[in-house]
């Protein structure tokens, strides 16, 4: 209820502050019988982890996840899965100067006003560190979706500042530190980021997720549409300011005759909808895009106010990402996987015995 | 769980198909003591109602809402509020040809695959008619927010096809059939829509909502952020394909030094964030934008498949909006009001006795 | 959240006051493809209906349920089902004297204190009239459970004041106005109730529910155990003050060697557990008992206070049941059916692909 | 959804198996500003802890709780509170013989059938060890209720086998290993338990909870009544088979003139209702009783079947409580506190601005 749980049937509840003892979470509703080890989850945690390249923060976080329950003899038992990631590299001294002031662009001010108190160390609960737990939980969903249904959740960086990926080659994405699927843009990204780091500033980004091998029929009418829940999931990622499904904002200037995807005996002729009609998956690839703001933790000096309301300066000296969008790629994948997983189980609850589940269009399931 | 409920503390659950006996809903969690009559809700229902101008569908729906419970002696009692809107103008014959085929761009195909059956009359549950109940429920929230906190939820059409509102004058919005806040664009809109109707095609639109007099501190960290819940609400409106908060997709090319809103002793110096930091309201106006696709019900002929998978033609002869975005303005307001209302009660549950609720920045609450 | 919704996947949300325009509800999560008509639900509504015998209230309520949505061409479509029961026989004058005082044993005082206002006509929302909607919703669950799994939910009056049913013959239950399964007790019940009516007093009762053909494995560990959810459901019925599963309170004096049900290759040798172990169904019959207090609406004069806190008298002149426990039988069945239905869908969501679902013990599923 | 979360606004989600690495949980929705240390929670954990007397199991579990998040500078911050209790004394060898058979009276059979697999070590998730987390979470609720509202949650053993507490002296309860509030029954309990241990058998018990200084108005009408949620909470405790509120099962033979509690200008004249009318607290003490079955882990030999369905013997050699009811006292208190806490926040969400919150009856709040 206080917002630390995501999902209704397959759910994850998280806890933890950036500089506390540990972060962690509980997955509830995982089907039994899924082979699962910590190594399965570590893959994506390592992709999200800071300090893996010179383009992301130099902070070292080991992000080693421990599975505390819900797995026995190598398989999930159907009971709740406890996840724990200890905080190691805390260096609280880096943040001592923020106790008495509100960093602009951060949640310092809003947490203080909401609760009358806040854990100011490293942003506390509002730190992106919390997303490590989402990545671990999303890893469980990804494994189940892939293994049981062949569904794959493929994220990538589609734009960084002015540089746009023009070809989407998923085999390229994980071979470079930018999660960029376009091999021709790597040199430009490298140069852009080097200059940006020198300037002490940060930049926004666009991240996209493509979900392949989608079943038809996932998503609930009216409020909990598949696209609405994806929007909720993505806008809930730190720094995200916009979400699109399919053609997104370009539909504003489209005509109906142009936008509607024709159905043919061979399948849909196009995918303007992004794989969702009436909130329910069409069986086509689901396509989601999101816009991430530039981090506000920059070494460019700025002004703000103290907790007493007086003007003061703000200089961030900590180690921060010049583009938080980059590391958001595995987070976006995890959140998308959690949404699909939850809707798969929700669909199954209500519709197990529907006879005509074979799609009319061959190959669409 | 099957998606027909919105909100956690102040919630609305809806039912009803386009051509059934009635549509309706239940509001749960409404504070007691609020003066409420059907006339309060009818205002927005009439704004949403089809047939009010030549630019929207000529279908006549009286959309008269009845309050069946939860109000006694003119005030809410705290118990659940039953809402009923009877369906009158059903003309099922208009839709008889769609029983055997899937209209492209509609939910016919996905409902059929999900459930193995569907109410094909007028789109059934997937019809935008269902949003009338949301508008009625949103009216209760709007009244409470305005009366108790002075909060106003102001929607408007910010773009229709290529025509953009350049000045936002809320006093203009409700004086024209487009909900356009820019008086200088009315003639252009009129001409554009006349041409569009002649062509038999439809067009997309952008709708925006500005929420004024926001309290500081609404929104729950991590998953149920205020902006994430707004994204869920807006993407759950029929035809919406994209949602932005504050600067939205333009943050992709922004620098951190440019985006972060400086705090001064007089308040925030700018509002790039759209009134939300870390998922919690800053006390500034909340700004949300959404993109609505052009309706797929057009008289331009198209192709599709029958429920048996054979190619067939599709011509929509019913009475439809050439731009569904226009009538979405009161729906977007209603959904935004439901989100704010729910978060207000959620905040109050946990934080009633916090001492330091006076904001540091004067005038910010 | 404000308590008007029951169930998580198969849920019912209700509204309505005793003397308002109508009562009703929304069922969400019903599987598609279930043949359903109003007549299916009317059977149990008629069993619950007042005025059917001289032992229950003489008030006439027609309790005619209307299905407003979610059913098309005679089968459920998977979308939300709207239910409406109009209030007819309101006779508000019977209750005019209760506006200024709190009837002892009723919810007048607590509603007034909770909400600062109340609909005092006939108890408003706290009236047992609201349970008619539960009975209708339970009817949908009962039909599905019976048809798809053979599960039957069989309620009966097990005790009324000092008179206990000693033989449980389900074929007798619905042949008499007491829902008593013991044919040898009908004469005694008849005499007892005649004397009670003369005295103007009321009496408590015990109602039991036996659920047959239960699948193994329903119920979720830890909090949402099958028995815990049954307790929630039953204690939520007006006038219920106690709930037992299986041996109930007699376990206090049992030894472990006596209580534990031995498993044999032919099945369990006994059913002290009431069909639930560790919160999960064993495949045996589920047995639940509940105690209902005597109604407080009696013609025996009493004392109470006015809404101003002054002493006053209270005489109930309305038409009331001398034993509310009798009509609670179909309500208890309905609530039990809602619990089983919800747990069936919850189980299916998580466990669809478990291989070893065949029980080790033959005949146990 | 899969049952590992309790509460809607103030909620606790738990994980962990008896013989896994650790058990733990997450509290969400805790008001900020509450002074909280691990020592606050340890008090009740130590009361629940095995090995504290010769009448409970000799297993040593240190049950040391660690607060991993949500507390900063000694006070709660309003964010989620992570709790961890490491498992220490595991001695898996004690349980090796149960892998291949289903212990009667335990959840071995039902877990296996539900999930197709189970963690058989010490009962896994079905072990009462999981309740340690509930006790820790309940401790947070107890502290808040006591400090902010003076509410106290007082549990005690009201009956053990044939021995009933006749006087309820709360100052006696925590001075003896039985949590018995009647000083005159201690010798009899001591003797009874000594004989029982010798016989190798176990015995049932009745545990009661009295909640003092209750505010008026807690509880939601219809389904989530205060008493219904208490029934859910209590029946969800391992081994509980029956729950009563107020007069409980004795209402069956009561007359209405006898049961209804008269309101006088000085307050209620009696408390047959157990402090709840219409599901809402009256301001009187809330009284709940529950029946706990005798543990099935006894050294008296028994029969059962193997996982292959063959007859086999069962002898429990582990260290077990001869009366699990005794240690259930702090668990029952914790669950009651969680219910009251949740309803307090739920009430506050909806009713913050009700004017007439002063009760008519002096001293009733």
From TrEMBL, chains A, B, C, D:
Q: Self-association or partners: how does it assemble?
A: Homotetramer.
Q: Which GO terms describe its molecular function?
A: chorismate synthase activity; FMN binding
Concerning PROSITE patterns, the annotation shows: CHORISMATE_SYNTHASE_1, CHORISMATE_SYNTHASE_3
CDD domains in UniProt: Chorismate_synthase
User: What does the UniProt function comment say about this protein?
Assistant: This reaction introduces a second double bond into the aromatic ring system.
The family note in this entry says: Belongs to the chorismate synthase family.
This protein is called what?
Answer: Chorismate synthase
Q: Which cofactors are required for activity?
A: FMNH2
Cofactor binding: number and manner:
Reduced FMN (FMNH(2)).
Membrane spanning residue stretches: none
Annotated residues for binding of NADP(+)? 48, 54
NCBIfam families to which the protein is assigned, alphabetical:
aroC, PRK05382.1
- Gene Ontology CC annotations of this record: cytosol
Kindly give the SUPFAM superfamilies that the UniProt entry links to this protein: Chorismate synthase, AroC (SSF103263)
């Amino acid at each position: 209820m206080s917002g630390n749980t995501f999902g209704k049937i397959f759910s994850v509840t998280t806890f933890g502050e950036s500089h506390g003892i540990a972060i962690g979470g509980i997955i509830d509703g995982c089907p039994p019988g899924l082979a699962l080890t910590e190594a399965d989850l570590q893959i994506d945690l390592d992709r999200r982890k800071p300090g893996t390249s010179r383009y992301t923060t130099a902070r070292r976080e080991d992000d080693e996840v421990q599975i505390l329950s819900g797995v026995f003899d190598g398989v999930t038992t159907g009971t709740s899965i406890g996840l724990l990631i200890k905080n190691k590299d805390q260096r609280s001294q880096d943040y001592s100067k923020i106790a008495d002031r509100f960093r602009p662009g951060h949640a310092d001010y809003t947490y203080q006003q909401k609760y009358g108190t806040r854990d100011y160390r490293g942003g506390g609960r509002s730190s992106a560190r919390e997303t490590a737990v989402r990545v671990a939980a999303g890893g469980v969903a990804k494994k189940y979706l892939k293994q049981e249904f062949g569904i794959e959740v493929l994220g990538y960086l589609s734009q960084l500042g002015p540089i746009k990926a023009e070809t989407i080659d998923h085999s390229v994405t994980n071979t470079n530190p930018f999660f960029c699927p376009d091999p021709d843009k790597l040199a430009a990204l490298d140069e852009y980021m080097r200059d940006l780091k020198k300037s002490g500033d940060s930049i926004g980004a666009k991240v996209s997720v493509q979900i392949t091998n989608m079943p038809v029929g996932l998503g609930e009418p009216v409020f909990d549409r598949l696209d609405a829940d994806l929007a909720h999931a993505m806008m809930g990622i730190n720094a995200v300011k916009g979400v699109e499904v399919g053609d997104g904002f370009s539909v504003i200037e489209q005509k109906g005759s142009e936008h509607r995807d024709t159905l043919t005996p061979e399948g849909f002729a196009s995918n303007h909808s992004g794989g969702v009609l009436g909130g329910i998956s069409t069986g086509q690839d689901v396509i989601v895009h999101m816009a991430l703001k530039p981090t506000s933790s920059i070494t460019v000096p700025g002004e703000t106010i103290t907790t007493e309301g007086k003007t003061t300066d703000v200089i961030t000296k900590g180690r921060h990402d010049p583009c938080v969008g980059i590391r958001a790629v595995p987070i976006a994948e995890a959140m998308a996987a959690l949404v699909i997983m939850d809707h798969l189980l929700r669909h199954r609850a209500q519709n197990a015995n529907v006879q005509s589940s074979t799609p009319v269009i061959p190959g669409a399931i």
